[in-house]
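Because discrete structure vocabularies remain unfamiliar, we first show an illustrative case, written as a sequence plus integers encoding its fold.
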Amino acid sequence: MVIDGIAQKKFLVIGRVGMDLTPTPTNTATQHATDMMVAMGGSSANIAAGLVKLGCQAALVTRVSDDSIGWYCQNQLDHYGVDRQHVTPISGESRTSLAIYETRIEDHQSVIYRNNAADFQMDIADVEAVDYSQYSALITAGTVFAAEPSRSATFRAFELARAAGIPVIFDVDYRPYSWPSPQVAQQVLSRAGTLSDMIVGNDEEFGFMAGHIDQGLAKARELAQKNAAIVVYKMGAEGAVTFVQGQEIRTGIYPVQAVKPTGAGDSFMAGFLASLADGHPMRDAILRGSACASIVVAKPGCAPAMPTLAELDAFLASHPGATQA
């Protein structure tokens, strides 16, 4: 069911869109900035933009503030070709997320403003308004579960997706600053994992779900045995282990000169899914996702840095071998 849904290339993505500000030029610290690059951000929006750039269709479900920042995000979704019919502007005190990311590795600073975030106001009515039969897979990033009513709404979307026969794809994406406590996060993210057909996370995130970093790999293996058809356990520079159909596929990465640490996970997800959709074997799809991650960390911005299919193929042609996992 998972591969069949992915192959149809019609993705419904739940989660935030926001505005990213990046001090320019490269290596500028925020406290010394006089100019900023403006771009669309937010994990779910980045994944959606990445999918569209790679030839898939993607629609976003979220809320934005009905102000100039929210309007900017809506315009950017249009720019990237992401369907925003389920993006709802709201008035009041809730605001669209704003992030300031530096394009530097040493002493990197990321500051994210999510006080009373508009996307957390997404409710059950928002997800029940979607016709799930028009999509072939649902994707969400773990941030949506950090607060109500977004949490309950997303679990409802899982139910509706399953009723429509489309797979649920879950990027753990644990951001501690968004959650009321680690205990709540562990409980909720673990529940989401048990309801998902495909799970992607890094070693720290699976370790968090398991209760200790040393138990993360075992947790990923357990989820693959009991719940999910595909589980990807990412280990940063050490590559990834993917659990699928009783196999454990180990893959490396494509080393690049990184200019920032952000955006890699979103780009990996988009590249991995788009490559599976295009019929690439599992190992090749994982490596293509890894290549997308490398492309993004080597450029400023997140959504703007997501590669097109031509850019991905050109990168792979000039980087013929990944590291050994």
User: Anything to note?
Assistant: The chain is about 35% helix and 20% strand.
